[in-house]
Design brief:
Chains A, B: This is D-malate dehydrogenase (decarboxylating). The structure is a homodimer. The first copy, chain A, has about 350 residues and is an alpha/beta fold. In chain A, about 40% of the residues lie in helices and about 20% in strands. The structure holds 3-isopropylmalic acid (2 copies).
Chain lengths: ~350, ~350
Amino acid sequence: KHFSIAIIPGDGIGPEVVNEGLKVLKVLEEVHSDVRFVYDFYDWNCEYYLKHGRMMPTNGLNLLEDYDTILFGAVGAPTVPDHVSVWELILPIRRHFQQYVNLRPVKLLKGLESPLRYKSHDDLDFVVIRENTEGEYSNIGGRLHEGTPYETAIQNNVFTRYGSERILKYAYSVAESRPKKRLTVATKSNAINHTMPFWDEIVKEIGNEHPQIDVQLYHIDALAAYFISKPESFDVVAGSNLFGDILTDLGAAIVGGLGLAPSGNINPERKYPSMFEPIHGSAPDIAGKGIANPIAQIWSISLMMDHLRLPELGKLVLSAIEEVLFDGTVRTPDLGGTANTMEMGDAIVSKIREM
Amino acid sequence: KHFSIAIIPGDGIGPEVVNEGLKVLKVLEEVHSDVRFVYDFYDWNCEYYLKHGRMMPTNGLNLLEDYDTILFGAVGAPTVPDHVSVWELILPIRRHFQQYVNLRPVKLLKGLESPLRYKSHDDLDFVVIRENTEGEYSNIGGRLHEGTPYETAIQNNVFTRYGSERILKYAYSVAESRPKKRLTVATKSNAINHTMPFWDEIVKEIGNEHPQIDVQLYHIDALAAYFISKPESFDVVAGSNLFGDILTDLGAAIVGGLGLAPSGNINPERKYPSMFEPIHGSAPDIAGKGIANPIAQIWSISLMMDHLRLPELGKLVLSAIEEVLFDGTVRTPDLGGTANTMEMGDAIVSKIREM
Ligand SMILES: CC(C)[C@H](C(=O)O)[C@@H](O)C(=O)O
Ligand SMILES: CC(C)[C@H](C(=O)O)[C@@H](O)C(=O)O
């Protein structure tokens, strides 16, 4: 079987960690002789922007359309305002391809210690389902009375029934597929009194079709605190675009840091390609030093394999990451070690070959 | 000196913890014979709403106007939708009285352990300055196509130059008053691309007037993660209404929980009364059991004393709380003990008397 992958390394540490991802794709072909990955590279990033005045060509989205999947590094550089680079590259891809599910596991891997004193591996194993196409990231808004003391900026949160239903149905269905049958949903309907009560209503409506699911709505402030005090109570956590964003960085922090955390931007209908990327950004402060942790990128490839219906390969990649971390000899600086990005990637590749 | 205080116990555990606060006010009069607190009670809560169809009388805000300060418990009960109780009581008070600063210390008290494995008392001592009158809590929005598949809810984030400047100026001035001279500001200008870039601009503009301050803008997702990984790097943290809300519950979690965390809703110009309240809510699940931790409420009284320009009393109250926690014999269940609300309050009162 052939799978086509569009590779977008992006900025900063993006290309460095994507390189390690490519090594993993190659070794997967070795161990699974039926599978071939065919890929093309797209150099769309802030450098491209400085040359062409845009983050991707006008037909960029068309170019991506026919791939089976997309592997993304990270976007953003000090030379281009963040909202430009993000709104012209990563967010249009998520939206155009209806990647409305952002799937982000929060799992403490073997060999790692949580920064939370009393929490162990059993306590830290859940998944966050984040809405990925609307909500607080609306792009709708503007300014009035610019340059005067009365200047005002307004931005809309836009929650549609269409968008909220599809992500919440997905979240319930993931909860159904797991033994605990528990769904925790982020809200802030006490203070954000138009969009969030609407969201809560839809949570309850869809809940009526899932009487077996134990569903709980928590305000985002309290929920963030519960990530610290009772992460063991979570199984599936669902949130809007912004709330899911915040919760998943927090989730990464409680299981060892942003260097590890992967994500899948998924179009569940498989009408369009899904995209896999680390949660972390382009980290300009450590770019070029070769010390970035490639695990988030490599774990994203594990999620990609699951999505491509190659679950044995997904499992293999994740197990290899865990084994290497458990050995403990090869670790990047963010995990307290001295290995560089390539050494970390090579160790995982060797482990896959051995397994 | 006489100080007039409006007392609003509110719902759930609100009245229980406010009672302990009143004991503390009384003992402060004993130890400081020049000071007298005169107070009136207002029974505005969800019960009041069920009787009168509103959370407070139409002239409620006028009634509060002439007090020196307001002591608030907590609002919210299962019988009234949260957005009603909140938008008719606590939020109108914050807005009408221009309490645009929500001041929330994040400090690990002596005798307590942080849930963060490697963080000690020196690592956990900063203050969050939250915008408290506008932003994401706009109350502006509505719904379209109700009851159809095309239903859409919209809510505006409204950031004014007026509102953003005054809170950020305040934050810079607090940073100026502290030895570290460091200000960390929450943003999300990469994705929320109208209001947040405006906020960032104002951060930088005011920064130009404070060249001594080391200012850092972090996206809220990364900042939430840094609360776990490097809380020791913070001195003053500023955020919008929503971001400050999330960060302060998270802040409470890393220093021992919501039972401890106090807040001041402050009108710095002292044109209107300021209001002091715990960060926690009305906690219907434990209401009536007498087991709520009154420390957040009592610490709020410490902040109230600071605001009333009685810093020796503010310090006394906080020291007494710390001493009792350090003794360790009297602790409420949230801190692993078996003391009830009154015993915890009494222990602090006795300590104040001894000191
Ligand atoms: C009750 C609620 C509206 C409130 C807020 O979000 O401001 C609370 O969470 C707080 O932090 O004081
Ligand atoms: C780069 C940024 C817009 C993005 C987001 O907020 O979605 C990132 O933080 C993420 O979580 O993937």
